[in-house]
Write a structure and sequence with these properties.
This protein has about 500 residues and is an alpha/beta fold. The chain folds into 2 domains: about 5-170, Leucine Aminopeptidase, subunit E, domain 1 (3-Layer(aba) Sandwich); about 190-490, Aminopeptidase. Helix content is about 35%, strand content about 25%. It has 14 helices and 19 strands. It has helices spanning about 25-40, 40-45, 85-100, 120-130, 155-180, 190-200, 210-220, 220-225, 280-295, 340-355, 370-375, 385-400, 435-440, 480-490, and strands at about 5, 15-25, 60-65, 70-80, 105-110, 150-155, 205-210, 235-240, 250-260, 300-310, 320-325, 330-335, 360-365, 380-385, 400-405, 425, 450-455, 460, 470-475. Helix 12 links the parallel strand 14 (about 380-385) and strand 15. It binds ligand BES, manganese (II) ion and zinc ion. Zinc ion binds near residues 257, 260, 278, 339 and 340.
């Protein structure tokens, strides 16, 4: 655990790592402070190098004072008018990349605090803590974390403390997602996901589990078909966190494929291992509920996840099979690798029948095609409600988890027409794979329910470091949902 302290009185002279965060006009601030702490000579040397402090520019110096090595990091915060939660969180991430292997204590000083009382230091530290996550559980040689304390000088202690107390719960949720996604599929199997969900009980979340028998009773044959080739159980898990039932009721639905081999339409060996992360949607739902409950948010949310393994065996579902979904619609399973939409078909329908939410948002690593369309920066957004999209975009801008809306247009419907059943689970054409997947889901949505589908197949994982995460699992979605549920949905009062 890193101890975070906000204080007016920080001893900089004795700091081993000193971070100076300066806006683009901050050259004088940097030189003054360094002069005050370490004398004119050092100040001149360093500040001469800080001519322009554009946003995101980091300068890293090592100096020796009285025989002791000190690390001085100067970080450019850019233009005051562009300061935001997102810009400071990212900056915190960039700074953390420089200090992660350094000393136990870091002290932060800035000239950025503005009259509008924004808790910029809290955001900065939040970014550092988001970036501070690695997974070495299976490494024999573990590198112990050195960083123990971050001390920030601020004239706005209370506002920074209050926000940071909230942010720390969000960070916990994000880290939960990353851990669940990074665990291999032989560990994070359906029973383990169930255990993770049950661990939420202690935060006041009510857990309901449907096992195979229950699902058979409900007629969830689309989901059960996917599970047929696996020796592991399948579950639908509902998690209710209803601390204020006057608030709009929101259902978060998650795709929880603990492994997606493709089924009989087997995936190629290269990259198949990444399919341990095909349960990210479920992890985002679990992580979000944890975040909400930890901060005792006054909201009305149910999370429903379908947890299944897509495998091969003599009993596996076959291409050409026809299943009757819980809704009564018949589906031709043209491709066993388009399994996520089969699972979600029943989970979305069940969530609506059982909980009658006003808003449904699903998270799914649904299509490889979303990476072709949007790369790793934007998640795909599909929705039947312009207003819901606008509101989600507000949160996306606030937290920097970007969404791009794609068409959910009837003109693509022909692509999923089946000769034998009501619909089939893949498009006949070659293009628009993410759109036809979303259109398939729409068949299981009541048109009066405001619904958004977020395809996170390319944003959940990156082979490169990102501003707020190391390469690997990103935890994309928790911060978005926290802001949407706590700040947009609950506060604007309108149910439209
Ligand atoms: N889980 C995959 C999608 C995916 C791909 C997630 C890459 C993360 C990274 C999904 O179940 C899948 O296999 N989709 C197929 C659909 C196709 C058969 C229509 C795909 O994208 O190839
Ligand atoms: Mn698949
Ligand atoms: Zn999948």
């Amino acid at each position: 655990m890193i101890d975070v302290v906000f204080s007016v009185d920080v001893d900089f002279k004795s700091a081993n790592v000193l971070v100076l965060v300066a806006d683009e006009t901050g050259k004088n601030f940097v030189s003054e402070k360094l002069k005050m702490f370490f004398g004119a000579e050092i100040s001149k040397c360093i500040s001469d190098e800080c001519e322009e402090l554009a946003y995101g520019k980091i300068k890293n110096f090592n100096i020796v004072i009285d025989g002791k090595m000190k690390n001085i990091i100067i970080a450019g915060a850019g233009n005051q008018n562009k300061f935001s939660r997102s810009s400071f969180e990212k900056l915190g991430g960039y700074i953390f990349s420089q200090i992660k292997s350094s000393e136990a204590e870091v002290r932060v000083f800035s000239n950025c605090e503005s009259a509008n009382n924004e808790p910029l230091m809290a955001y900065l530290v939040s970014g550092m803590m988001l970036k501070n996550w690695t997974f070495d559980k299976y490494k024999s040689d573990k590198v112990p974390a050195k960083l123990k304390k971050i001390e920030c000088k601020t004239g706005y202690i209370q506002v920074n403390k209050d926000i940071f107390d909230k942010l720390i719960n969000i960070i916990d949720g994000v880290h939960t997602v990353r851990r669940m996604v990074t665990e291999p599929a032989n560990v994070m199997d359906p029973d383990k996901v169930l255990e993770e969900a049950k661990a939420l009980k202690k935060f006041g979340i009510k857990i309901t589990v449907l096992d195979k028998k229950d699902m058979e009773k409900q007629g969830m044959n689309a989901l059960l078909g996917v599970s047929k080739g696996s020796d592991k159980p399948a579950y639908v898990i509902a998690m209710e966190y209803k601390s204020d039932e006057s608030k709009p009721s929101i259902a978060l639905v998650g795709k929880g494929l603990t492994f997606d081999s493709g089924g009989l339409c087997l995936k190629p060996a290269k990259g198949m291992g990444e399919m341990k992360g095909d349960m990210t949607g479920a992890a985002v739902v679990i992580g979000t509920l944890k975040t909400l409950a930890l901060q005792q948010a006054k909201v009305n949310v149910v999370g429903v996840v379908g947890v299944v393994e897509n495998m091969i065996s003599g009993n596996a579902q076959k291409p050409g099979d026809v299943v009757v979904a819980m809704s009564g619609k018949t589906i031709e399973v043209d491709n066993t690798d388009a399994e996520g939409r089969l699972v979600l078909a029943d989970v979305l329908w069940y969530a609506k029948q059982k909980y009658a939410p006003e808003i449904v948002i699903d998270f799914a690593t649904l299509t490889g095609a979303i990476q072709v369309a949007l790369g790793h920066e934007f998640a795909g957004l599909f929705s039947n409600s312009d207003r819901l999209c606008d509101n989600l975009q507000k949160s996306a801008a606030t937290v920097g988890e970007k969404l791009w809306r794609l068409p959910l247009h009837d003109s693509y419907e022909d692509d999923i027409k089946s000769d034998i059943a009501d619909i089939k689970n893949v498009g006949s054409g070659r293009g628009a794979g993410s759109i036809t997947a979303a259109l398939f889901l729409k068949h299981f949505i009541d048109p009066d329910t405001k619904w958004a589908h977020i395809d996170i197949a390319a944003t959940e994982w990156d082979s490169k470091d990102r501003a707020l995460s190391q390469k690997g699992a990103t935890g994309f979605g928790v911060r978005l949902m926290d802001d949407f549920i706590c700040n947009i949905c609950s506060k604007n009062g309108s149910r439209k």
